[in-house]
Sequence to fold (429 residues):
Amino acid sequence: MSRARGPHPHRPASALGGGILAALVLFVSWPAGAQEDPIGGPGPFTPGQLPGQVPVGDNTEPPVQSALPPQAVAPHRWEFALEAHEGWDDHPTFVESPDAVSSFSTGASGSLSFKQPTRRGTVSLFGAGSFLRYDSLVGHDGFMWAAGGSGSRRLSTSTDLAGQVSYRSTYTQEVESLIRAGLLLPLTVAKTISSNATLSHRFSKVTTLTTYAHYERYNFDSPEFVDGDSLNAGAILNRALAGEASLGVSYDWFRSDPDGGPLLDFHSVYVNASRRFGRRVSAYGALGGSYYKQPGGGEGFPIVGNARLMARWTQTGFSLLYDHSTSQAYGLGVQRIADTASVDAERRFGRRVSFTASYAYGDSRDILQESTHYRTHAVRGNLSWNLSGGFILEGRGTYWLTTYSLTTGPVRTTNVGCALALSYTGRWR
Fold:
C-alpha cells in the first residue's frame, strides 16, 4: 500500500490562500411552511462537513458521536481537562509483519479552551498536548499537540459569518475524521492544518443561502504515506417547507491534490431534503452527480449522495449515516470513489453511567484503477462512570480491520485494543 513521496509539480505552498468559490444555483419555488428556519438535527450543512462528503480534516469530533440531547451546562469562559490512561494493543503498529508485537501503553493529556461572547458573536481559542509511551515498541513514543481558534459574527439581522482554523499533530489512529472516512492507516504521526469559513444569508423566514470554503493539509512523518491537501468551496440554497421539512439544492467544487499524484477538480450538484418525524426522529438525504476530468483526458460522471437518520429518547439514542462520494484518500496518494457507513448508539444508565458504541465501514477505490480496494472496519465501545467533583472513569475497547487489495492479492491487518482512563474537567468564568 506504500507509495514513495514524489515532488510536487503543481503549485507552491501558497495554495492555502487560494480563492473561495461561491456559486448560486437556480432554485425552484415551493410552498413554504410557517416555521421560521429549516428544521434542526441532521441538516444539509455543518462547517467542515460538505454536501455529499464525509468530513476529512479537523479532528473535532468525540470518539463516538452522541445521539442524545446535550445536557444543560452553565456557561463558562474557561475550561481545562486532564487525563491519564493505560492501554494495551495486540497489534499497535497496524502493519503486517512477522516481527509485530503487542504492547502496553501509558499516556497523559491536557487541554485548555477559552470562549468569549461578544456583542454580535463569539471568539474561541484552544490548546492541547499529550504524551504516549509504548512499553514494547521502539521509536513510536512522542509528544503531540494541537492549537486553534474559531469565531462567529452576526453581520446583520439576516447575515452570519463564521470561521475556524486549527493545527493538530497526533497519531493516525486517533484522527477521528480519517476513521470515519474509512482511512485506517498504520501507526505514524499525522500533522493536519484545517480551516473553513461560512457565510449565511436569510432572504426570508424560509429561504437561506449558505456559502462556504474549506481547506485542509495532511503531512505524515513516515515516507510510506503520501502527503496531500484539498480545497472546497460551494453554496447551498435551502427552503423550509410545511410539516417540519426542508428542500435545497447545492453546488460543490472540490480540488484534490496529493503530492506527486494527479490533481483533480470535482464539480458536484446535489438536491437535498430533510424531515423531522415528531420530536424524536429526523432524517436527511442528498443525491446528485459529479464531474471530473482525468489528467490523460478521460472524464468521469459518478453519482454521489448520502443519507442520515437520527433518533433520540430520554436515555437512548442512535444515528445512521451512509455516504457515496469522490475525494482524496489521504496517506494513500490516490483519488478515490468511496462508500462509507457508520452506526452510533448511546445508552445512559441514570445520571452517572453511560455506554456508547460505534461501527464505521469504508470502501475506497482508486478512480484510475477501481479494482484496487481499501476496506476498513472500526468497532469501538466506551463505558463511562461520572464520578463526583468533575472526575470521569472510562473503559474503552477497539477493534480495527483493514483489507488492502493489491495485484498480488489482499493484505489483511487487525488490531484489538483496550484502555482504562481517568479524566478531570474544570470550568470557570
Remarks:
- The mean pLDDT is 82.
- Residues 402 and 413 are 5 Å apart (CA to CA).
- The chain is about 0% helix and 60% strand.
